[in-house]
Design brief:
Distance between the termini of chain A: 63 Å
Shape of chain B: globular
CATH superfamily of the domain at 225-330 in chain B: CO dehydrogenase flavoprotein, C-terminal domain
CATH architecture of the largest domain in chain A: 2-Layer Sandwich
Structural class of chain B: alpha+beta
Strand content of chain A: 15-25%
CATH topology of the largest domain in chain A: Aldehyde Oxidoreductase, domain 4
Order of helices and strands of chain B: EHEHEEEHHHHHHHEEHEEEEEHHH
Number of strands of chain B: 12
CATH class of the domain at 225-330 in chain B: Alpha Beta
Bound molecules: flavin-adenine dinucleotide, iron/sulfur cluster
Number of helices of chain A: 16
Structural class of chain A: alpha+beta
Strand content of chain B: 15-25%
Number of helices of chain B: 13
Largest sheet of chain B: 5 strands, antiparallel
CATH architecture of the domain at 225-330 in chain B: 2-Layer Sandwich
CATH superfamily of the largest domain in chain A: Aldehyde oxidase/xanthine dehydrogenase, molybdopterin binding domain
CATH class of the largest domain in chain A: Alpha Beta
Helix content of chain B: 25-40%
Oligomer: heterodimer
CATH topology of the domain at 225-330 in chain B: Enolase-like, domain 1
Strand order of the largest sheet of chain A: 5-7-3-16-13-14-15
Number of domains of chain A: 4
Number of strands of chain A: 31
Shape of chain A: globular
Chain lengths: 752, 349
């Protein structure tokens, strides 16, 4: 609840607050009973169904489509191809800013990656649309596909990820290596991975003149509005997006994708509401992915195990027609104190869909390689991996020398290590067996993720009946944003949760920024906090200026909002309800707004990031090389915890994704055709319950005065980082085999 | 999916008449067939639903010690049938190592035998596949073939049959009961699936319209109950097809093998009975050296069909493990993780 004094800003007090409570998701019952309506569950009168036809070649052009056969199929209404696709106001290949990604919207017959949309069939039923798409039987003029990291000449990108420089360095690298008595140079490979939320991209689009109404999952409704507005030449206000629930996003719903736009175009073409849902295999291509990397790490350390130099180079791949460069090497910027660090990137252009942000973009593959290399260096220095990390602990940000806004990483190491029992670990590999003779190994990794924040806005209203409303166009990806943000809102308004109406998930509400970069709680939460402070301040001003109020003249003493009442700060017995204040002022309600942006001064002064330490135990069958992660313990510090249940579930989910990255997940691409051969859930493996028999997340206490008003850092992505390396290091510790290619598969460790 | 007719015959006779119509397919639970239809790999014009035919859902434990399993018996119902599992523990273990609980609740005996290969190029209609389209070529050769065959393959097809269930069944001399337009007949499961040769499109000995009505285990199969195991290597702890699997069933007398049954899974386009290895093992002491020797014999004709040479040594080790586990005796209870390398642990069942 905000504590308002006229002289000072707001500070946060937590006693009796909603923040910090482990509430369950408010929509939990809806989801477990199947009554939550996701985009694909929506239905509109007169609605018809669209199905994409996608390319089976990776490069070339479509020479013919049997449109007649598709049209002749009973139920088919229309076939949308480059010949009849509605004209757009903006070319799909236009790129006015780095976040405008080029889309495939039937602008030509060219094919630039496998699974690119080449037509859309619209029909009375889903079945008819699907069969219509199959009947198109495309013919192609095919050119050889360029696949893999060696299939083209690399170029050096000036910018990577969300716009960081492609090469950065600090200190004197040559001097660092000259001072080193131990040097290693190692190369790690990570594969292409595809975001596969349970809910594929889906849209129900309906036009009314030049007004557009859509149901679609989105991690960034305001950005989607802008993009759609630009493409169709309409005003963003004419577009209403409803996105109350996402069945997962992981980055692939951050930017509106080509297939979603095709659904809107189809609706325009046939003049009726259209539903388009991607098939699982269509998730592998047009909606982004995590690019493969090949990373080289060159480390030097002195005789005491102190790093003297660190070079991290990442080769990655992007599409032939757009730029997204996985910023993998930047993982080496933030963790280990080396007097000299250099990170560089290069990339090849291959015949693939454009890669995009995927949960912990850059950090995930970068951390996998870095944390493995650090383990290799600890061994080369004859040190325990945790002792080596502590020896190289960064007390200030390694690249910039800035102090950290807060950093409880030592506590993470300590609490995680203790819980795991790390101290009992033998340094040499192949020393531990379980009762069945299985090899057992322990490994660890450090987790890190930047604490980001984006501009966001919120609105708050207090009503005479004692209730309040908070409105924000926030995005619930399943992470529990509705619940956690409503907790912040309840405190911001000084109301019990039951008296608060929380409106979210719709584009006609204030822009909450994008749900990405693990920044949604920080951004949207701060905006809500600000809106609450604003409306409470207005209410307090009314009361303090009203002679009839017990708060009259509270002035410099200030007031506290709690339980629907304002209290005098210096005498809490003097209070009155919001309703009383509004009634006397003759008001039905009073409104406030919050708008936040990152604090430039704080960002200039401090390095801001969340930290963690992950400890893994693996069991490996010595004959078969089959690996199982039998225990995972992660300890994370990420500032204020709004809802420990949600936060823990983010950490667990992140760590499980780490298991996936380390042991399972990869797109099996046919190098000849450029097609992904395991584009289904039977063969694109992610962990199942039996792969995660024991997993724990420890929430390490941390207070941060600088990141934002709430002291919140992000928790959504950090769990993957650290975990992949921890598992790889445990596999080495179990088997004595260092696998430098992910995922680690059984033939690499079965001792052939 | 193409448009198709749907028939739900009431009698076996009606079913086989309908099943013999051109381009008809029997529909059991559809866990494989529906996937194939959605992907355009199978395009039947008539689905003959055998789900309500009388008598196909019975598990009969025969007086002589054998068993007769109706074609529509669900995999889960069979595995959890206590008396069946006691007589044929390796079969129950294999069943429970397959797919997921949800799939096992649906998947049927007949459907499991007739499930198609998991070769990715077979499922991808844009790829060349001799099995789908005779004479088209085989894109698995030179492609993603890490999990493909190491035994019995041909230049025309290097795919495997992925069933777990079929592996102990083959080891135990199971017999498939068929009913066709020409009447009933029986085929040994070992002879039921065909190796690809130059006709990979011919997968089994089934004639058009022939229906599997039951699978029978002979009385002698129950003699192995005390020493029968199934081991399955997979790329995650559960819910994955086998990389390689093996069933081993032994009869021992004073530490000496008097009879052995060995079959391997996911190594060839049919469940692979290792008869020479069985013969070599008879009369030997049940020890590591003999098991390794048997494994060498079982794989003596193996060769890589692509990036899968590791499967050969892996298969040998799986045979050794299965034999060792079988020799040390069938556990009183099915392990929490059936057929798993990690079955020692008590974890998720
Ligand atoms: C994701 C996934 C994972 C799986 N993992 C495994 C695994 O690990 N191990 C394993 O062994 N299996 C696995 N399976 C395969 C599964 O066991 C089969 O799909 C199932 O057994 C098929 O049975 P069904 O009743 O659904 O057959 P259907 O799909 O209905 O039929 C399959 C085929 O058999 C024919 N058919 C069915 N019954 C008869 C009959 N009585 N007579 C003649 N023809 C018939 C049908 O026409 C069709 O061609 C998996 C399947 C999936 C989808
Ligand atoms: S291996 Fe067999 S099933 Fe696979 S593509 Fe070749 S012919 Fe088809």
């Amino acid at each position: 609840m905000p504590e308002i004094t006229l002289a000072q800003g707001q500070a946060h007090i937590r006693m009796g607050s909603s923040i910090g409570q482990p509430l369950t998701r408010w929509e939990g019952v809806l989801k477990t009973t199947g009554t939550a309506r996701f985009a694909a569950d929506q239905h509109q009168a007169g609605m018809v169904y669209a199905c994409l036809a996608v390319s089976s070649i990776a490069r070339g052009r479509v020479t013919s489509l049997d449109v007649a056969a598709a049209r002749a199929h009973p139920g088919v209404i229309e076939v949308m191809t480059p010949a009849n696709a509605p004209a757009l106001a903006l070319h799909p290949d236009a790129k006015h800013h780095p976040f405008m990604f080029r889309l495939d919207l039937l602008q030509s017959d060219a094919v630039r990656f496998a699974n690119q949309p080449i037509a859309v069939v619209i029909a009375q039923t889903l079945e008819a649309a699907t069969e219509g798409a199959a009947l198109l039987a495309p013919r192609y003029e095919e050119q050889p596909a360029r696949t893999g990291l060696d299939s083209a000449t690399p170029f050096t990108p000036p910018f990577i990820g969300a716009g960081s420089p492609g090469a950065e360095s600090h200190g004197d690298i040559e001097a660092g290596f000259a001072a080193a008595s131990v040097r290693i140079e190692v190369e790690y490979d990570t594969p292409a991975q595809y975001h596969n939320p349970m809910e594929p991209h889906a849209i129900v689009a309906a036009w009314d003149g030049d007004r557009l109404s859509i149901d679609t999952p989105s991690q960034g409704m305001a950005m989607a509005q802008q993009r759609i507005a630009g493409l169709f030449g309409i005003s963003p206000e004419n577009i209403h997006i409803r996105s109350p629930f996402l069945g997962g996003g992981f980055g692939c719903k951050g930017m509106i994708s080509g297939p979603q736009i095709l659904g809107i175009m189809a609706a325009r073409l046939v003049g009726r509401p259209v539903k388009l849902v991607l098939r699982r295999e269509q998730m592998f291509g047009p909606v982004g992915h995590r690019a493969p990397t090949r990373q080289t790490l060159h480390l030097g350390a002195d005789a005491d195990g102190q790093l003297t130099a660190l070079i991290h180079h990442a080769r990655t791949a992007t599409s032939t027609f757009d730029d997204f460069i996985e910023p993998a090497a930047n993982a080496s910027h933030s963790l280990y104190a080396s007097p000299a660090i250099r990170t560089t990137h290069d990339a090849v252009r291959i015949d693939t869909g454009t890669p995009l942000f995927m949960r912990a973009p850059g950090e995930a593959p970068g951390s996998a390689a870095l944390e493995s290399a650090i383990d290799e260096m600890a061994l080369a220095c004859g040190m325990d991996p945790l002792a080596f990390r502590l020896k190289n602990y960064a007390d200030v940000a390694p690249m910039t020398g800035k102090p950290f806004s807060s950093k409880a990483l030592r506590a993470c190491y300590q609490q995680g290590g203790e819980r795991f029992g790390w101290a009992a670990r033998p340094t040499a590999p192949r020393q531990m067996r379980d009762a069945n003779g299985m090899l057992v190994g322990w490994g660890m990794g450090t987790a890190v993720f930047p604490a980001l924040m984006f501009p966001a806005q919120a609105a708050a209203v207090l009503r005479r009946d004692g209730s309040g409303v908070v409105e924000i166009g926030a995005h619930d990806m399943g992470q529990g944003a509705w619940t956690a943000l409503a907790q912040i809102a309840a405190d911001a308004l000084g109301l019990d949760r039951a008296h608060l109406e929380f409106r979210s998930g719709s584009s006609d509400l204030p822009d909450a920024g994008i749900a990405g970069g693990s920044a949604h709680t920080a951004s949207a939460g701060s905006a809500i906090h600000g809106a609450g402070a604003d409306v409470i301040a207005k209410l307090a001003a009314l009361a303090m200026g009203d002679e009839a109020s017990p708060l009259f003249g509270a002035g410099n003493a200030g007031v506290i909002a709690r339980g629907g009442r304002l209290h005098r700060r210096d005498d809490e017995a003097r209070s009155e309800t919001y309703g009383e204040i509004l009634a006397r002022a003759g008001l039905e309600e009073i409104a406030g707004r919050g708008a936040v942006a990152p604090d430039q001064a704080a960002q200039a002064a401090y390095a801001m990031q969340a930290h963690g330490a992950v400890f893994a135990e693996v069991t490996v069958d010595p004959d078969f090389g089959q690996i199982r992660v039998t225990r995972l313990v992660g300890a994370f510090a990420a500032g204020t915890v709004i809802n420990p249940r949600m936060v823990r579930s983010q950490y667990l989910g992140g760590m499980i994704w780490g298991v996936s990255f380390a042991l399972h997940e990869h797109a099996a691409m046919d190098k000849r055709s450029g097609r992904t051969m395991n584009a289904n859930f039977a063969e694109y493996h992610v962990p199942v319950n039996a792969d995660v028999p024991s997993i724990e997340a420890i929430l390490v206490d941390e207070h941060d005065e600088h990141v934002n008003a709430l002291g919140v850092k992000g928790v959504g992505e950090i769990g993957i980082t650290g975990t992949v390396g921890a598992i790889a290091n445990a596999v080495w510790h179990a088997t004595g085999v260092r696998v430098r290619s992910f995922p680690i598969t059984l033939e690499q460790v079965m001792g052939l | 999916m193409n448009r198709f007719d749907y028939a739900r015959p009431a009698t076996l006779a009606e079913a086989v008449t309908a099943g013999a119509l051109p381009n008809a397919a029997y529909l059991a639970s559809g866990t494989n067939l529906m996937d194939l239809m959605k992907g355009g790999v199978a395009r039947p014009s008539l689905l003959v639903d055998i789900g309500r035919l009388p008598g196909l859902d019975r598990i009969e434990l025969l007086e002589d010690g054998g068993a007769r399993i109706g074609a529509m018996v669900r995999n889960a119902d069979l595995a959890y049938h206590p008396a069946f599992a006691r007589r044929f523990p390796a079969v129950a273990e294999a069943l429970l190592s397959g797919a997921s609980a949800q799939l096992r609740n649906a998947a049927t005996t007949g459907g499991n035998l007739l499930q198609r290969t998991r070769c990715a190029y077979f499922y991808d209609t844009a790829s060349a596949c001799n099995k789908r389209d005779p004479g088209a070529g085989c894109d698995a050769v030179g492609g993603e073939n890490r999990l493909h065959a190491i035994l019995g393959f041909s230049a025309q097809c290097i795919a495997t049959h992925p069933s777990d269930f079929c592996v102990p069944l083959t080891a135990l001399d199971a017999v498939v009961e068929l009913l066709g337009p020409q009447g009933p007949r029986e085929v040994k499961l070992e002879d039921f699936h065909l190796l690809p040769g130059s006709t990979p499109e011919r997968e089994t000995v089934l004639e058009p319209g022939e229906l599997i009505t039951a699978v029978r285990l002979p009385a002698a199969a129950a003699d192995f109950a005390a020493h029968a195991r199934y081991v399955k290597i997979r790329e995650r702890t559960s819910y994955a097809f086998a990389v390689v699997s093996a069933a081993a069933c032994l009869r021992l007398q004073g530490g000496v093998v008097t009879q052995a049954r060995i079959a391997l899974g996911s190594v060839a386009l049919k469940p692979w009975r290792a008869r020479a290895a069985e013969a070599a093992l008879c009369g030997q002491r049940a020890d590591a050296a003999a098991f390794r020797q048997a494994a060498e014999t079982a794989l003596q004709d193996a060769s890589p069909s692509g990036d899968n040479a590791f499967k050969i040594e892996l298969a040998r080790r799986v045979v050794v493990r299965a034999l060792s586990l079988a020799a040390s005796g069938t556990p009183a209870r099915l392990p929490a993780l059936p057929a798993s390398a990690f079955s020692g642990e008590v974890a998720h069942a």
